[in-house]
Amino acid sequence: MEFYPLHLLLSRLEEEIEFQQRVTTTYLVGAPKYSPETVASIQETIRRISADIKLISLIIGELEEIQEKDIKEEVLILSSESLSLVSLLLPAVERYAPFFLENLRIENKPILEKLEEIIEEIENALEKLELSSSREIIKTLENLAQSLEVSLVVGEKIIEREA
């Protein structure tokens, strides 16, 4: 794994949170009409969500090495905020996505349920500023990101075949 300064990773996550907020507002407030352009935009959004989840797993992987309490708090807050937006965004864009969320499972649980468990663990960690199961969370986040990517690729191939 390459080394990235933590402040750069956190800055990138803040930018992605802004993107997630804009997209969430777009699809929750005024869902656009179904069109090839909308589908392409959703596919790109799902790719970014997957990349964001990988970014969070990378940041959480650095948590044990961080000594400063304010940085630990920032890591946990930003991770929680981003994953919470993802949990809102995925159902909002599902109707445009080339897969169904209920078919996606992580550790034999629906993807959104598993995502909510991770969010809860991160929010509970804010009191102690320590994640007791960070390795498990990292693995689960990586599996979640991979599951989204694979489902997207399979869905795109099905769409291409039908076109």
Describe what this molecule looks like in 3D:
By secondary structure, the protein is mostly helical. The protein has a single domain, classed as Four Helix Bundle (Hemerythrin (Met), subunit A), CATH 1.20.120. Helices cover 75% and strands 2% of the residues. It has 5 helices and 2 strands; from the N terminus they run H-H-H-E-E-H-H. A hairpin with a 2-residue loop joins strand 1 (105-106) and strand 2. Helix 1 packs antiparallel against helix 2 and helix 2 (36-61) runs antiparallel to helix 3. The longest helix is centred in the last third of the chain and has 29 residues, at 134-162.
In short:
The chain has 163 residues and is an all-alpha fold. Helix content is 75%, strand content 2%.
Secondary structure blueprint with pairings:
Elements: H1 6-29, H2 36-61, H3 69-93, E1 105-106, E2 109-110, H4 111-128, H5 134-162
Antiparallel strand pairs: 1-2
Helix pairs in contact: 1-2, 1-3, 2-3, 2-5, 3-4, 4-5
Q: Tell me, rounded to a whole number, the average pLDDT.
A: 88
Biggest beta-sheet profile: 2 strands, antiparallel
Report helical residue fraction. over 70%
The count of helical stretches stands at 5
**Structural category:** mainly alpha
Question: Segments where pLDDT lies below 50 for 5+ residues?
Answer: none
Shape: globular
Element string (H = helix, E = strand):
HHHEEHH
Strand content: under 5%
Total domain modules: 1
C-alpha termini separation: 39 Å
**What order do the strands of the largest sheet run in, or round the barrel if closed?**
1-2
The tally of strands reads: 2
CATH topology: Four Helix Bundle (Hemerythrin (Met), subunit A)
Q: From the alpha-carbon coordinates, what is the Rg to the nearest angstrom?
A: 16 Å
CATH classification class: Mainly Alpha
Any guess at the CATH architecture? Up-down Bundle
